[in-house]
Amino acid sequence: MAQGALSIVLWATDLDGFAAFLTDAVGATLEMRHPGFAALAVEGAEIQLHSDESYPGHPWREALANEGAARGIGAEVRLRVDQVDARHRKAIEMGYVTIQGPHDDGTGRTCQLMGPDGYFFTLWEPRIGGV
Questions:
Q1: What Rg do the C-alpha atoms of the chain give, in angstroms?
Q2: DSSP secondary structure string, 105-126?
Q3: CA distance 14 to 53
Q4: CB 120 within 8 A of CB 98
Q5: Is 61 helix (H, G, I), strand (E, B) or coil?
Q6: What are phi and psi of 121, to 5 degrees?
Q7: Rounded mean pLDDT of the chain?
Q8: What is the structure's pLDDT at 67?
Q9: Alpha-carbon torsion (120, 45, 25, 50), positive or negative
Q10: Where are the domains positioned within the chain?
Q11: What is the model's pLDDT at position 108?
Q12: What is the architecture, at CATH level 2, of domain 7-54+75-126?
């Protein structure tokens, strides 16, 4: 598994469900999986998922254990994908919430979703010949 300049780690309450969201709705490729850990690739970016048990002494662990804690508050995970509309439909079929449906902006086609564990995702398909 090649790691690029940036790798993001997201803590997950349901690692298998989160990995399914990333593979089925976002189009990520599962690169590695073992108990408490998954590594996925999306357009050259790496996303690692860690279960809460991965860091038993971490100071955030207690705060994240609170029921309903929005783990991704203040962050947006923006991923370049193909077929934004189809990916959005799949995410909705899987039970995820639309923040803003597929639309054209100045850079291409995009949508915003509330993904697993309250993480905010933007799926972006660049305009052909654009960015």
A1: 15
A2: -SSEEEEEEE-GGG-EEEEEEE
A3: 11
A4: no
A5: helix
A6: -120, 135
A7: 89
A8: 65
A9: negative
A10: 7-54+75-126
A11: 94
A12: Roll (3.10)
pTM for the whole thing? 0.85
CB-neighbour burial class of residue 76 (10 A; exposed 0-12, middle 13-18, buried 19+): exposed
Q: Which amino acid would we find at residue 1?
A: M
User: What's the pLDDT tens digit per position in 56-98?
Assistant: 887 877 777 776 667 778 889 999 999 999 999 999 999 999 9
Q: Assess whether pLDDT exceeds 60 at residue 1.
A: no
Q: Output the six-digit token pair for 87.
A: 């990916």
- Given the structure tokens 């993904």, which residue do they identify? 115
CB 122 within 8 A of CB 109: no
Dihedral of CA 61/35/120/68: which sign?
Answer: negative
Instruction: Note the pLDDT tens digit of each residue in 106-122.
Output: 889 999 999 998 899 99
Given this model, what pLDDT does residue 9 score? 93
C-alpha 130: how far from chain center: 24
Residue 72 DSSP one-character state: T
Residue 121 buriedness (CB in 10 A; 0-12 / 13-18 / 19+): buried
46 token code pair: 């790496």
